[in-house]
Amino acid sequence: MQSGAQGGRVDIAGALRDAGVAGLIALGVLLPLIGFQTVTNINDQLVLATRWPLLAAFVAITAGGRFIYAAALAPRLAHRAARPATAAPAAWRGYVGRWFVPFAIGLVIAYPAIVMATAGFGGAQKWIDNFGIQILIYVMLGWGLNIVVGLAGLLDLGYVAFYAVGAYSYALLAKTFGLTFWILLPLAGLLSSFWGILLGFPVLRLRGDYLAIVTLAFGEIIRLILINWVALTNGYAGIISIPRPSFFGIPFTADDDGFAARFGLQFSPIYRVIFLYYVILALALLTCFVTVRLRRLPIGRAWEALREDEIACRSLGINTTNTKLTAFAMGAMFAGFAGSFFAAREAFISPESFTFIESATILSIVVLGGMGSQIGVAIAAVAMIGGTEILRELDFLKEIFGPTFDPTQYRMLLFGLAMVLIMIWRPRGLISTREPSIVLRERKSISVDLIKEGHG
Amino acid sequence: MDGSPVLRVEHLTMRFGGLVAINDLSFAVKRGAITAMIGPNGAGKTTVFNCITGFYKPTEGRIALQRGDPAVWNALEALTDAGGRGIVRPDGALYLLERMPDYLVAQKARVARTFQNIRLFPGMTALENLMVAQHNRLMLASGYTLLGVLGFPSYTAAERAGRDKARGWLDRVGLTERADDPAGVLPYGAQRRLEVARAMCTDPVLLCLDEPAAGLNPRESAELNDLLLAIRDECDVSILLIEHDMSVVMGISDHIVVLDYGVKIADGAPEMVRNDAKVIAAYLGVDDEEVAQVEAAVGL
Fold first, then answer.
1. Which of A3, A41, A129, A323 is most buried, by CB atoms within 10 Å?
2. In chain B, what residues touch A447 (CB-CB under 8 Å)?
3. Which pLDDT belongs to residue A102?
4. Alpha helices in chain B (DSSP H)
């Protein structure tokens, strides 16, 4: 594919040939995906509609993009690669590295205020709820799963099961016994980690692919139980009107003893949203804090050692079964916290929210972010969840592709594109270096090439 | 060196299906001494190691390890008949290793080992490798993580002590400069030394080394000899090693056990083993030329 770069001269014919091939491939792939669409007509029949202009637009974009790459970008990149690399970026990298985390934490704390200042009182709710809270839930889930997958190297494809256990624990206990959010939050975490240990005992003797399959099955079993145990969970219909959390006893209602009235404010649903935002922010930061702390403790080092070499761990007297179980239980506990928050926020849960695609999303956040990296996982969650949410906002695309164009339908396509790009550009995730947990003289990051991915 | 054994292997047999890897093997490892186990490839040396360290469950036989007062040995038969794993008294302890899972052999009986193909944690620094080796003690100090998460000072002190100990071992094996480098980038000889240091950080009673000199150049293997002699003399540790490098075996061992086809063919001091006709025949082959060659190598 070096046809575009021969001695720095632009090879238009080669670039055109490349563009033609790319266009043909795009046509073949996108013809069934975009060219055809099933719609329900006025007689309630399903008929096949065609979308030739849209298909043409996509093929043209692909071919055009490939042409620009082959004719203009590739020669430059080849030219740049030929030059020796300069050491200049090191200075700003150190600067960014030092200030990124405090800046990011400051930004998320100030986020509701910033949004209210820019989008106004009415518009802010959507941005705090759909973006802020939604993203933070996934950041927390990503950090939780990171303990299991990133640190201990155990591939868990059924993580959403623990999220579901947390959500249903809160919903059922709150509705049945009238317990409050703050009592049920730790209880849901405990129940989830109990299920983590229960699952862990039989399956942790399995390794690698076998472990992944069994955890996948466990996730499905929990979901099927939630669907079929109608007497307890109300099946597909789910659980409605789950009690919402109060502000330390003061409910967010329009009554006289509600939050707004007590504090002399005009009633608005946004107070609850802001409160929930800070609750999930605190929970996510707690997850991060505990994980960072655990990494520097013997248990965290044992998790990482387990990922590196299990047999060596056993030869050093480490009980690998217990070590794996604690990783599973710890990851499950944070999923349980997130689950109970989710149930409290939505006030409605059903098995639909806990499908395999959720597990896959959380796992891809961990993998894209870089296994074991807290910052990487947070960035990946913002990009993946924020990215899909932002698709709802891209109304201007309708003016380009026609009024029936719905960008949210392309979620999975973009998801796949992001995966492929990351695989090419950063096969081990966005942030793929490891920081040592203890230092004698000088802190040096460890290259990803040395780090094992674990094998169950 | 009071002459009492630290480890007794009695009538050890290990079968893999129809293959008899070790057949009725008995030997003892003397306290405070270096015992070498030699034999041709496939003689079953590593299998013996795996049985001692709990990675294999032997088909038959008894493997007993004792520390502290040698009088504890008297309880061996009673312990075997009672079906227990071990007894711990204030003045000593006795363990039946064949009844213990691998991690307990390391944790309770304090048998440390290294591996033929080095098994460090390549993505962790040299220092971290030595900290992982102190897992059980630090785990206790961190109150099984609870006190550690809350940042109790007792844990901080324990961690500092652990780091000083690791630092001491890094100094001894000459890796202080590389303490913060990942183990995976260290040169081969340094990795071998680090693995020995890591095993020593578990405070072992018995140190089992599986071909510690494999792949080392003559200078490095002379350094290794010095290190092992220093460990024997200063650390109250008995050493059992498998080795092919005769300069190491003859240079430092106090006692040699020779295996061939899973059977012990000789057992004694280096001079005795060196002159044993059976050893020369089995180990060095029967071809006259070859015998002469290897005899020259071992200094006959």
1. A323
2. 182
3. 85
4. 45-52, 76-82, 102-107, 126-133, 135-141, 146-149, 153-172, 188-200, 218-234, 246-252, 270-274, 277-284, 288-298
